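ugh ok fine here u go
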Amino acid sequence: MKFGPVPVGEALGAVLAHSVKLKDRKLRKGATLTPAHLAALAEAGETEVVVARLEPGDVHENEAAAHLAEALVPDPQAAGLRLTTAFTGRVNLIAETPGVALPDTARLVRLNRINPMITLATVPAFRQMHAGDMVGTVKIISYAVPQDDLARACAAARDGLRMAAPVLRNATLIVTEIPGGAGEKGVPAIGARLEALGLTLDRVTLVPHRTADIARALSEVESDLALILTASATSDPADVAPEALRRAGGTVTRFGMPVDPGNLLFLGALGPRPVIGLPGCARSPALNGADWVLARVICGIAVTAEDIADMGVGGLLKEIPTRPQPRRG
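structure:
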Protein backbone atom coordinates (compact mmCIF):
# COMPACT_ATOMS: atom_id res chain seq x y z
CA MET A 1 0.00 0.00 0.00
CA LYS A 2 1.21 3.48 -0.87
CA PHE A 3 0.32 6.29 1.51
CA GLY A 4 0.83 10.02 1.16
CA PRO A 5 -0.28 13.25 -0.52
CA VAL A 6 -1.21 13.35 -4.20
CA PRO A 7 -2.73 15.98 -6.49
CA VAL A 8 -6.54 15.84 -6.45
CA GLY A 9 -6.56 15.03 -10.15
CA GLU A 10 -4.53 11.86 -9.53
CA ALA A 11 -6.56 10.55 -6.57
CA LEU A 12 -9.27 8.65 -8.44
CA GLY A 13 -9.90 5.24 -6.84
CA ALA A 14 -7.66 5.97 -3.85
CA VAL A 15 -8.83 5.85 -0.23
CA LEU A 16 -9.11 9.24 1.47
CA ALA A 17 -6.87 9.21 4.56
CA HIS A 18 -8.19 12.35 6.30
CA SER A 19 -11.66 13.90 6.30
CA VAL A 20 -12.06 17.05 4.22
CA LYS A 21 -14.65 19.79 4.87
CA LEU A 22 -16.46 20.74 1.69
CA LYS A 23 -18.91 23.61 1.22
CA ASP A 24 -22.03 21.75 2.31
CA ARG A 25 -20.77 18.50 3.79
CA LYS A 26 -17.77 16.57 5.01
CA LEU A 27 -16.00 14.02 2.86
CA ARG A 28 -15.05 11.43 5.44
CA LYS A 29 -11.83 9.54 5.66
CA GLY A 30 -11.98 6.01 4.32
CA ALA A 31 -14.05 6.98 1.29
CA THR A 32 -12.93 5.53 -2.04
CA LEU A 33 -12.65 8.61 -4.21
CA THR A 34 -14.93 8.81 -7.25
CA PRO A 35 -15.01 11.39 -10.08
CA ALA A 36 -17.78 13.21 -8.19
CA HIS A 37 -15.60 13.36 -5.10
CA LEU A 38 -12.70 14.80 -7.09
CA ALA A 39 -14.95 17.43 -8.65
CA ALA A 40 -16.25 18.44 -5.21
CA LEU A 41 -12.71 18.67 -3.85
CA ALA A 42 -11.60 20.82 -6.74
CA GLU A 43 -14.66 23.06 -6.34
CA ALA A 44 -13.76 23.50 -2.65
CA GLY A 45 -10.31 24.70 -3.68
CA GLU A 46 -8.42 21.58 -2.63
CA THR A 47 -5.39 20.85 -4.77
CA GLU A 48 -3.91 17.97 -2.82
CA VAL A 49 -5.25 15.14 -0.63
CA VAL A 50 -3.62 12.47 1.51
CA VAL A 51 -4.65 9.03 0.31
CA ALA A 52 -3.88 5.34 0.54
CA ARG A 53 -3.49 3.41 -2.69
CA LEU A 54 -3.90 -0.34 -2.65
CA GLU A 55 -1.27 -2.27 -4.57
CA PRO A 56 -1.45 -5.79 -6.01
CA GLY A 57 -1.60 -8.25 -3.10
CA ASP A 58 -3.24 -5.78 -0.72
CA VAL A 59 -6.58 -6.46 1.01
CA HIS A 60 -8.91 -3.60 1.91
CA GLU A 61 -9.39 -3.02 5.66
CA ASN A 62 -13.04 -4.14 5.77
CA GLU A 63 -12.44 -7.27 3.73
CA ALA A 64 -9.39 -8.10 5.85
CA ALA A 65 -11.29 -7.59 9.12
CA ALA A 66 -14.14 -9.79 7.94
CA HIS A 67 -11.78 -12.58 6.85
CA LEU A 68 -9.91 -12.52 10.15
CA ALA A 69 -13.11 -12.54 12.21
CA GLU A 70 -14.45 -15.49 10.23
CA ALA A 71 -11.20 -17.38 10.84
CA LEU A 72 -11.39 -16.64 14.56
CA VAL A 73 -15.01 -17.78 14.74
CA PRO A 74 -15.75 -20.12 11.81
CA ASP A 75 -18.96 -21.38 13.46
CA PRO A 76 -20.50 -18.44 15.36
CA GLN A 77 -23.46 -20.45 16.64
CA ALA A 78 -21.24 -23.15 18.14
CA ALA A 79 -18.94 -20.49 19.60
CA GLY A 80 -21.80 -18.53 21.16
CA LEU A 81 -20.72 -15.37 19.34
CA ARG A 82 -22.10 -12.93 16.79
CA LEU A 83 -19.89 -11.12 14.28
CA THR A 84 -20.80 -7.56 13.32
CA THR A 85 -20.49 -6.26 9.77
CA ALA A 86 -17.03 -4.88 9.03
CA PHE A 87 -16.86 -1.09 9.21
CA THR A 88 -13.75 1.13 9.21
CA GLY A 89 -11.64 -2.01 9.41
CA ARG A 90 -13.40 -3.30 12.53
CA VAL A 91 -15.48 -6.35 13.38
CA ASN A 92 -16.81 -6.77 16.90
CA LEU A 93 -17.37 -10.22 18.41
CA ILE A 94 -20.47 -10.18 20.60
CA ALA A 95 -21.58 -12.76 23.17
CA GLU A 96 -24.87 -14.36 22.20
CA THR A 97 -25.21 -16.09 25.57
CA PRO A 98 -24.15 -15.49 29.15
CA GLY A 99 -21.09 -17.48 30.09
CA VAL A 100 -17.32 -17.35 30.20
CA ALA A 101 -14.99 -16.09 27.47
CA LEU A 102 -12.41 -18.59 26.26
CA PRO A 103 -9.75 -16.92 24.12
CA ASP A 104 -6.92 -19.23 23.07
CA THR A 105 -4.11 -17.08 24.44
CA ALA A 106 -1.24 -18.75 22.61
CA ARG A 107 -2.97 -18.50 19.22
CA LEU A 108 -4.01 -14.90 19.71
CA VAL A 109 -0.56 -13.80 20.83
CA ARG A 110 0.84 -15.29 17.61
CA LEU A 111 -1.79 -13.45 15.60
CA ASN A 112 -0.91 -10.07 17.10
CA ARG A 113 2.81 -10.56 16.38
CA ILE A 114 2.41 -11.01 12.62
CA ASN A 115 1.79 -7.44 11.49
CA PRO A 116 1.11 -4.46 13.79
CA MET A 117 -1.63 -3.34 11.40
CA ILE A 118 -3.58 -6.59 12.04
CA THR A 119 -4.93 -6.63 15.57
CA LEU A 120 -7.31 -8.44 17.87
CA ALA A 121 -8.21 -7.31 21.39
CA THR A 122 -10.23 -9.58 23.70
CA VAL A 123 -11.40 -9.63 27.29
CA PRO A 124 -9.21 -11.72 29.63
CA ALA A 125 -9.57 -15.49 29.62
CA PHE A 126 -12.43 -16.76 31.80
CA ARG A 127 -14.07 -13.33 32.05
CA GLN A 128 -17.79 -13.71 32.82
CA MET A 129 -19.91 -12.19 30.07
CA HIS A 130 -23.55 -11.29 29.58
CA ALA A 131 -25.43 -11.71 26.32
CA GLY A 132 -24.67 -8.65 24.20
CA ASP A 133 -21.25 -7.98 25.75
CA MET A 134 -18.28 -7.42 23.45
CA VAL A 135 -15.87 -10.33 23.84
CA GLY A 136 -13.33 -9.16 21.27
CA THR A 137 -12.73 -6.69 18.48
CA VAL A 138 -10.77 -7.17 15.26
CA LYS A 139 -9.23 -3.95 14.00
CA ILE A 140 -7.21 -3.45 10.84
CA ILE A 141 -5.34 -0.24 11.59
CA SER A 142 -4.20 0.69 8.08
CA TYR A 143 -6.49 1.02 5.08
CA ALA A 144 -5.15 -2.22 3.63
CA VAL A 145 -2.81 -5.04 4.61
CA PRO A 146 -0.76 -7.54 2.58
CA GLN A 147 -2.65 -10.67 1.63
CA ASP A 148 0.24 -12.88 2.79
CA ASP A 149 0.20 -11.37 6.29
CA LEU A 150 -3.56 -11.66 6.48
CA ALA A 151 -3.39 -15.33 5.51
CA ARG A 152 -0.81 -15.99 8.23
CA ALA A 153 -2.96 -14.17 10.78
CA CYS A 154 -6.04 -16.16 9.81
CA ALA A 155 -4.13 -19.43 10.12
CA ALA A 156 -2.75 -18.46 13.52
CA ALA A 157 -6.11 -17.36 14.87
CA ARG A 158 -8.34 -20.16 13.56
CA ASP A 159 -10.94 -21.18 16.15
CA GLY A 160 -9.18 -18.92 18.64
CA LEU A 161 -12.19 -17.47 20.46
CA ARG A 162 -15.40 -18.87 21.86
CA MET A 163 -17.81 -18.69 24.76
CA ALA A 164 -18.48 -21.42 27.30
CA ALA A 165 -22.20 -21.34 28.05
CA PRO A 166 -23.74 -22.45 31.36
CA VAL A 167 -24.33 -26.19 31.68
CA LEU A 168 -25.85 -26.19 35.18
CA ARG A 169 -29.47 -25.22 35.59
CA ASN A 170 -30.16 -24.62 39.27
CA ALA A 171 -28.62 -24.32 42.72
CA THR A 172 -29.37 -24.75 46.40
CA LEU A 173 -27.92 -22.31 48.92
CA ILE A 174 -27.26 -23.52 52.45
CA VAL A 175 -26.99 -20.62 54.91
CA THR A 176 -25.73 -21.24 58.45
CA GLU A 177 -26.99 -19.27 61.43
CA ILE A 178 -25.46 -18.07 64.69
CA PRO A 179 -26.94 -15.66 67.22
CA GLY A 180 -26.55 -12.12 65.89
CA GLY A 181 -25.30 -13.38 62.52
CA ALA A 182 -26.07 -12.06 59.05
CA GLY A 183 -28.83 -14.60 58.38
CA GLU A 184 -30.21 -14.34 54.87
CA LYS A 185 -28.60 -10.97 54.22
CA GLY A 186 -26.54 -12.18 51.27
CA VAL A 187 -29.22 -14.24 49.52
CA PRO A 188 -30.35 -11.54 47.02
CA ALA A 189 -26.77 -10.89 45.85
CA ILE A 190 -26.09 -14.60 45.40
CA GLY A 191 -29.41 -15.07 43.60
CA ALA A 192 -28.51 -12.24 41.22
CA ARG A 193 -25.16 -13.90 40.45
CA LEU A 194 -26.92 -17.12 39.53
CA GLU A 195 -29.58 -15.35 37.50
CA ALA A 196 -26.89 -13.56 35.47
CA LEU A 197 -25.67 -16.99 34.38
CA GLY A 198 -29.13 -18.32 33.64
CA LEU A 199 -29.55 -20.41 36.81
CA THR A 200 -32.44 -20.51 39.23
CA LEU A 201 -31.97 -20.55 42.99
CA ASP A 202 -34.21 -23.50 43.76
CA ARG A 203 -33.94 -23.50 47.50
CA VAL A 204 -32.45 -21.59 50.42
CA THR A 205 -31.91 -23.78 53.49
CA LEU A 206 -31.13 -22.21 56.86
CA VAL A 207 -29.32 -24.46 59.34
CA PRO A 208 -27.42 -24.02 62.59
CA HIS A 209 -23.69 -23.41 62.19
CA ARG A 210 -22.80 -27.00 63.05
CA THR A 211 -21.04 -29.70 61.05
CA ALA A 212 -23.81 -32.28 61.41
CA ASP A 213 -26.56 -29.87 60.32
CA ILE A 214 -24.66 -28.70 57.24
CA ALA A 215 -23.82 -32.30 56.30
CA ARG A 216 -27.48 -33.25 56.58
CA ALA A 217 -28.53 -30.31 54.41
CA LEU A 218 -25.92 -31.23 51.79
CA SER A 219 -27.20 -34.80 51.62
CA GLU A 220 -30.67 -33.45 50.78
CA VAL A 221 -29.61 -31.20 47.91
CA GLU A 222 -31.15 -32.16 44.55
CA SER A 223 -30.02 -29.14 42.52
CA ASP A 224 -27.12 -29.19 40.05
CA LEU A 225 -24.99 -27.01 42.35
CA ALA A 226 -24.68 -26.66 46.12
CA LEU A 227 -23.52 -23.40 47.70
CA ILE A 228 -22.71 -22.85 51.37
CA LEU A 229 -22.68 -19.43 53.02
CA THR A 230 -21.56 -19.60 56.64
CA ALA A 231 -22.49 -17.14 59.37
CA SER A 232 -18.99 -17.39 60.83
CA ALA A 233 -16.00 -17.12 58.49
CA THR A 234 -14.43 -20.42 57.43
CA SER A 235 -10.87 -20.06 58.64
CA ASP A 236 -9.34 -23.55 58.32
CA PRO A 237 -9.64 -26.62 56.05
CA ALA A 238 -11.01 -28.51 59.08
CA ASP A 239 -13.57 -25.83 59.94
CA VAL A 240 -17.29 -26.55 60.20
CA ALA A 241 -18.37 -26.25 56.55
CA PRO A 242 -15.48 -28.10 54.81
CA GLU A 243 -15.71 -30.83 57.43
CA ALA A 244 -19.45 -31.08 56.82
CA LEU A 245 -18.82 -31.73 53.13
CA ARG A 246 -16.44 -34.55 54.01
CA ARG A 247 -18.88 -35.98 56.53
CA ALA A 248 -21.59 -36.00 53.87
CA GLY A 249 -19.32 -38.17 51.71
CA GLY A 250 -17.85 -35.43 49.56
CA THR A 251 -14.34 -34.13 48.95
CA VAL A 252 -12.69 -30.74 49.35
CA THR A 253 -10.52 -29.84 46.33
CA ARG A 254 -9.21 -26.53 47.60
CA PHE A 255 -9.58 -24.33 50.65
CA GLY A 256 -8.48 -20.72 50.34
CA MET A 257 -7.64 -18.67 47.25
CA PRO A 258 -5.10 -15.91 46.51
CA VAL A 259 -7.82 -13.47 45.48
CA ASP A 260 -8.86 -10.59 47.70
CA PRO A 261 -11.74 -10.17 48.46
CA GLY A 262 -12.52 -13.88 48.34
CA ASN A 263 -9.72 -15.58 50.30
CA LEU A 264 -12.00 -17.83 52.35
CA LEU A 265 -13.61 -19.78 49.51
CA PHE A 266 -13.50 -23.55 49.36
CA LEU A 267 -14.32 -25.85 46.46
CA GLY A 268 -15.30 -29.49 46.45
CA ALA A 269 -17.83 -32.01 45.23
CA LEU A 270 -20.45 -34.39 46.54
CA GLY A 271 -20.67 -37.13 43.94
CA PRO A 272 -21.12 -35.40 40.57
CA ARG A 273 -22.45 -32.23 42.22
CA PRO A 274 -20.04 -29.27 42.64
CA VAL A 275 -20.03 -27.68 46.08
CA ILE A 276 -18.72 -24.16 46.68
CA GLY A 277 -18.20 -22.71 50.12
CA LEU A 278 -18.68 -18.99 49.61
CA PRO A 279 -16.59 -16.34 51.37
CA GLY A 280 -18.46 -13.74 53.37
CA CYS A 281 -17.81 -11.08 50.71
CA ALA A 282 -20.25 -12.95 48.44
CA ARG A 283 -22.99 -11.18 50.42
CA SER A 284 -22.00 -8.05 48.48
CA PRO A 285 -22.76 -7.72 44.74
CA ALA A 286 -19.20 -6.44 44.21
CA LEU A 287 -16.80 -8.65 42.25
CA ASN A 288 -14.85 -11.11 44.39
CA GLY A 289 -12.92 -14.34 43.95
CA ALA A 290 -16.03 -16.48 44.30
CA ASP A 291 -17.36 -14.99 41.06
CA TRP A 292 -14.37 -16.34 39.14
CA VAL A 293 -14.84 -19.87 40.46
CA LEU A 294 -18.64 -19.82 40.30
CA ALA A 295 -18.75 -18.78 36.63
CA ARG A 296 -16.30 -21.48 35.55
CA VAL A 297 -18.06 -24.21 37.50
CA ILE A 298 -21.49 -23.22 36.16
CA CYS A 299 -20.11 -23.29 32.60
CA GLY A 300 -18.71 -26.79 33.01
CA ILE A 301 -15.05 -25.71 33.12
CA ALA A 302 -12.98 -27.89 35.43
CA VAL A 303 -11.38 -25.90 38.24
CA THR A 304 -8.39 -27.49 39.96
CA ALA A 305 -6.47 -26.44 43.05
CA GLU A 306 -3.71 -25.28 40.69
CA ASP A 307 -6.18 -23.16 38.71
CA ILE A 308 -7.21 -21.36 41.88
CA ALA A 309 -3.59 -20.87 42.91
CA ASP A 310 -2.90 -19.25 39.54
CA MET A 311 -5.62 -16.64 40.11
CA GLY A 312 -3.37 -14.67 42.44
CA VAL A 313 -1.75 -12.61 39.69
CA GLY A 314 -4.50 -10.13 38.92
CA GLY A 315 -6.37 -11.27 42.00
CA LEU A 316 -6.16 -8.03 43.97
CA LEU A 317 -9.69 -6.76 43.42
CA LYS A 318 -11.45 -3.61 44.51
CA GLU A 319 -11.97 -3.44 48.26
CA ILE A 320 -15.49 -3.89 49.66
CA PRO A 321 -15.87 -0.97 52.12
CA THR A 322 -18.34 -2.83 54.35
CA ARG A 323 -15.88 -5.58 55.27
CA PRO A 324 -15.13 -5.61 59.00
CA GLN A 325 -11.34 -5.65 58.46
CA PRO A 326 -10.45 -3.50 55.44
CA ARG A 327 -6.92 -3.71 54.05
CA ARG A 328 -5.90 -0.37 55.53
CA GLY A 329 -6.47 0.26 59.21
